[in-house]
Specification:
The protein is of the alpha+beta class. It has a domain at 22-128: Cupredoxins -  blue copper proteins (Immunoglobulin-like). Helix content is 28%, strand content 17%. The strands form 2 sheets. Strands 4-3-6-7 form a 4-stranded antiparallel β-sheet. Strand 1 (23-25), helix 2 and strand 2 form a beta-alpha-beta unit. Helix 1 (2-20) packs antiparallel against helix 4 (164-184). It is globular and about 55 Å long. The structure holds 2-acetamido-2-deoxy-beta-D-glucopyranose (2 copies) and copper (II) ion (CU). Residues 34, 63-64, 105, 107, 110, 115 line the site of copper (II) ion. Residues 76, 78, 80-81 line the site of one 2-acetamido-2-deoxy-beta-D-glucopyranose (NAG). Residues 22-123 form the Phytocyanin domain. Residues 1-21 form the signal peptide. This is Phytocyanin domain-containing protein. GO terms for molecular function: electron transfer activity; metal ion binding.
Length: 185
């Protein structure tokens, strides 16, 4: 009984991770830049990041880079000791742990000009399929914020949006059938 529940739970977690892996291009079509006045904080607020998702930084490597930094370095735009640095201009970073991830461009002045990104990977426990509302279509406007956004960022739905509810339903059905089979026997 217990073993079956554990197996079902493991199966559920694995399936959810597979079905939820999404790729988010930072800044959408503008990419990672200072010239388009992208509000990266606003951009991140329109997304729900999960473990296994990927963020893609696209930029001209002659002018920019990507540094992953600590919170205090992020706050002060201090680029002296980055956790890691990316310089290809097409950097895919897979999110492997929950919590905040801080990035900025290490070129002098760019972080201060707003080329900085704080994204929060939500904890798996707070995103069970049963409590998640269905992901809405791209026709809805991004959530309003108390601050005045510098520039609108076009919202886009993650590519897995359509497949998620059916996959989740299948997993829940499997889980329920396993549990009830045990109660009946
Ligand atoms: C940046 O951080 C380093 C330690 O990581 C520190 O030694 C240095 O003083 C900081 N620079 C500024 C301008 O705060
Ligand atoms: C950037 O990398 C992604 C895969 O990580 C690839 O699909 C895309 O074509 C690349 N773009 C450029 C401009 O190289
Ligand atoms: Cu830059």
């Amino acid at each position: 009984m217990a073993a079956k529940i554990v197996a079902a739970l493991v199966c559920m977690v694995v399936m959810l991770r597979l079905s939820e892996a999404a790729v988010y291009k930072v800044g959408e079509s503008a990419g990672w830049t200072t010239i388009a006045n992208v509000d990266y904080k606003l951009w991140a607020s329109t997304k729900t990041f999960h473990i296994g998702d990927t963020v893609l930084f696209e930029y001209n490597p002659q002018f920019h880079n990507v540094m992953r930094v600590t919170h205090s370095m992020y706050r002060s735009c201090n680029s002296s000791k980055p956790i890691s640095t990316f310089t290809t201009g097409n950097d895919s970073i897979t999110l492997t742990n929950h919590g905040h991830h801080f990035f900025f461009c290490g070129v002098p002045g760019h972080c201060l000009a707003g080329q900085k990104l704080d994204l929060n990977v939500i904890h798996p426990a707070s995103s069970t399929p049963l409590s998640d509302p269905p992901i809405s279509s791209s026709s809805t406007s991004p959530p309003s914020t108390p601050t005045i956004p510098a520039a609108g960022v076009p919202g886009s739905s993650p590519s897995h949006a359509a497949s998620l509810p059916s996959a989740a339903a299948a997993v829940v059905a499997l889980f329920v059938s396993l549990v009830f089979a045990d109660f009946a026997s």
